[in-house]
Every structure is written in C-alpha cells, then in structure tokens.
Amino acid sequence: MSSEVSALTVKVGEHHLWHIFGITLNGDTISATLIAGAIILLLGFLLRRSMSVEKPGKLQLFFEGVVDYVQKQVEDTMGVKTAPFVVPLAMTLFLFILIANWIAIIPSPGDPEYLIPPASDVNLTYALALFVIVVMHVTGVRKRGFRGYYHHLLTPSPFMLPINIIEEIAKPLTLALRLFGNIFSGVIMVSLIALFPAYILWAPNILWKSFDAVIGLIQAFIFALLTIIYFGSVRPAEEGAH
User: Which domain holds residue 173?
Assistant: First the structure.
C-alpha cells in the first residue's frame, strides 16, 4: 500500500501554468527556453568580444570546432553554396537544444522543479521540427522550382505518391518525437529518483544527472544532423548527378 501511495507522488508532465488574457501557457517551458536563448546570446557576445586570430581562447576554439564540423556535414550532404544558411541554422539548433537540455542539471525549487528541460514539452519539439521542415520545403521550391522539388513524390513510380506523402508528413513527427521521448524519459527518471530516501538521494541523483548530460548532448547532435540530412533534398538536380 505504501508503494502505491509513493507512486502517486511522482509528478511527470505537470507544468507551472501561466494564465495570460485567457490563454494558458506552460511557464516553466517558456522560462527555460528564454534562459537557453539568453545563454546563447551571451556566449555569442563574449565570443565576439574576445575573438583573436593569434591567441584564440577556449570558447573561440569550441565554436570554431563546431562550425567546421557542421560546415563539413553540410558540404558533404548538399553543398554549402546551395543553402549557406543551413550551417548557422544547424549550429544554432545544436547549441540551443544542448543548453536547453543541460538546464535540467541545475537544481531548481518547486514540485515539480521549475527548470525542466524544455524539450520534455512536446509543444517545443513540434515547433522546432515544424520550423525546420517548413524552411526546408520553402528552400527546396526556391532552389529547384515547385515541380522540380516535389517530383521526388512520384519516384520511383507515380503509384508511390501516397507512401511518399506519408513519409513527408512523418518527417516532422519523428524529428519532434525522437527528441521529446528521450528528454521526457529523463524527467521521468528524475521523478522516480526523487522517491529515494533523503540520506541516499544525492548518489543516484548525481549519477543520473551525469548520464542525462550525455543524453542531452547526443540528442542535440542528432537533431542538428537530421536537419542537415533533410536539407539534402534541396540540392539542385545537376549537383546531385555528380
């Protein structure tokens, strides 16, 4: 009976709600998202202020390493000249999701905690995935024309049209739910670990937070990499023939 009562104290999927002009918003998701965005802006300003060709700092070397890797992936997938903005887009998504995921490492007050990773809210992951897919389609039509870009829906046969359409619809869903599922499972684990007695709570909490940080890094990398791969479909036909 005591285990059943304890299980009832696990709070997963609950949010601190804001009620503004009759609209209900998930306040913890918005707060964590704004904090992650502010951290990225702060890092950008610090990088701009301390940039040096002769003596680059650790922050500059980190950013340069990420940019070089992302640029190589974009070049191999679609060619940087096809859509140069994909490099800063993928890098920004990677850094934002990474920092947003790592926010969960910081203890915060409240029951449930106020600073949850915002990707554990499916609303955010759907918004990110929808943004990526919409920009991909718009770029594809601009680069290849409406008929040239959507011709792949009829390949290898016009009979494949329904299946190809389902595949296109599934792209934002899988992109969003993959990130959401992995991060949300971490929130569940934190809620379960909170049921440990207070005198041993610190040990499993530290172990899981360390593991969760690695998961957050991997999921940010996968989301950015899939973004680059999806944008590979906008490569002009003459480039794809090489």
Answer: 2-240
Q: For residues 85 and 89, give the distance between their C-alpha atoms in angstroms, rounded to a whole number.
A: 6
CA 234 to chain centre: 21
- pTM to 2 decimal places: 0.82
CB-hemisphere CA count at 13 Å for 28?
21
The pLDDT score that the predictor gives to residue 160 is 86
Average pLDDT over residues 6-21: 64
Rg of the Cα atoms in the chain: 21
Instruction: Please determine, for residue 92, whether its predicted confidence score (pLDDT) is greater than 80.
Output: yes
113 versus 158: which is more confidently predicted? 158
Tally of CB atoms within 10 A around 241: 7
Q: What number of residues does the chain have?
A: 242
Overall number of domains in the chain: 1
Q: In the numeric block, which tokens belong to residue 230?
A: 């999806």
Query: What's the confidence (pLDDT) of residue 219?
Result: 92
pLDDT at 38: 92
What are the Cα distances from residue 157, in Å, to 102, 115, 147, 163, 171?
45, 50, 16, 11, 21
Closest CA to 13 of 31, 26, 32: 26
The CB density around residue 172, as the number of other CB atoms within 10 Å, is 20
**Angle, vertex CA 43, rays to CA 74 and CA 50, nearest 5:** 100
Q: Which residue has the tokens 């049921």?
A: 195
More confident residue, 54 or 134: 134
